[in-house]
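lol forgot to send this yesterday, sorry. struct tokens for the thing we talked abt
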């Protein structure tokens, strides 16, 4: 059977395995790119079968990926000339999963166990201090002109900084999840598991002030015009611009927001939503919170993931030793 006819069966298998729609789209795009490469190399157009693919073809494909330029749609395209090793690893992993399925259920194709995924070094973990975070908040005041955008972005930054949530989880945060008790709300995490997060009073204050500029299910007057709130404005963080009012914020918008604030702060430190997530864990560790508690708050499945944060407090060890035992 030809490759393009095999892909739908594999994607259906992944859907039945509770894979998210975004993950399915990534599998689809990455495998389609691999198939197109095979069609051009083997010069068989769409008539390549599983038996035509050898292990060496996958190795050559990985070499081919290393020559590709970073797409301009990527937020990293100005910093990376070619595809990163982590991107190539993801694409290779998708191919390995594809062959693993056909090895297991049809006993066909390249042995997936022989497909090697490129290893890459994780980027150095960065975090922001309390002063750096305050500088980030101050930059919102200086950079943004509109009051409603200022309040929204401050509320967004405080929410990320004081919780463990990832950017996608914050952008999907909805008002009706627990509107009467904003400091303790439940969200749907991976595999639709419900998790509880906690917001402090300062974060709640910024969210309440921001919500005065927009309210779900109502008509909102802005710049002398009436806008009907869209169906998705039960989301907490939405676009405030006239032409896109009420729409969900994109990750690209958030990335651009951080880039502008970093430029104003004149810092070389890479500050992103995930940097603030690291800062959340670091702040807990420096407060000598039990690492098992941090693991639960961050929802790490493996304690080793949480232990990555312990290296950042090595500078505190000497001070604490002196505090307990003296000079």
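and heres what i got for the seq, position by position
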């Amino acid at each position: 059977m030809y490759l393009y006819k095999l892909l739908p069966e594999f994607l259906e298998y992944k859907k039945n395995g509770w894979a998210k729609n975004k993950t399915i789209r990534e599998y689809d795009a990455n495998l389609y790119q691999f198939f197109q490469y095979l069609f051009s190399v083997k010069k068989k157009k769409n008539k390549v079968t599983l038996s035509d693919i050898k292990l060496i073809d996958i190795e050559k494909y990985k070499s081919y990926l290393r020559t590709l330029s970073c797409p301009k749609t990527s937020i990293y395209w100005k910093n990376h000339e070619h595809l990163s090793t982590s991107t190539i690893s993801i694409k290779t992993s998708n191919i390995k999963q594809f062959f693993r399925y056909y090895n297991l259920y049809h006993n066909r194709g390249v042995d997936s166990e022989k497909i090697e995924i490129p290893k890459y070094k994780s980027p150095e973990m960065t975090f922001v201090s309390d002063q750096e975070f305050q500088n980030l908040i101050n930059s919102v005041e200086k950079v943004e002109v509109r009051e409603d955008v200022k309040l929204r972005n401050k509320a967004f930054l405080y929410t990320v900084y004081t919780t463990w949530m990832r950017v996608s989880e914050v952008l999907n945060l909805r008002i009706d999840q627990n509107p009467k008790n904003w400091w303790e709300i439940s969200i749907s995490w991976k595999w639709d598991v419900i998790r509880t997060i906690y917001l402090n009073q300062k974060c709640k204050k910024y969210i309440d002030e921001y919500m005065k500029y927009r309210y779900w299910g109502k008509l909102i007057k802005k710049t002398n015009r009436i806008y009907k709130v869209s169906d998705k404005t039960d989301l907490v963080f939405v676009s405030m611009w006239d032409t896109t009012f009420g729409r969900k914020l994109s990750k690209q918008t958030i990335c651009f927001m951080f880039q502008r604030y970093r430029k104003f702060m004149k810092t070389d430190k890479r500050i992103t939503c995930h940097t603030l997530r690291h800062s959340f864990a670091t702040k807990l560790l420096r407060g000598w919170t039990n690492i098992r508690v941090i693991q639960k708050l961050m929802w790490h499945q493996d304690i080793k993931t949480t232990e990555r944060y312990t290296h950042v407090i090595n500078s505190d060890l000497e001070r604490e030793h002196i505090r307990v035992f003296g000079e």
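Residues 216-221, 228-232 have pLDDT under 50 and may be disordered. anyway ping me if u want another try
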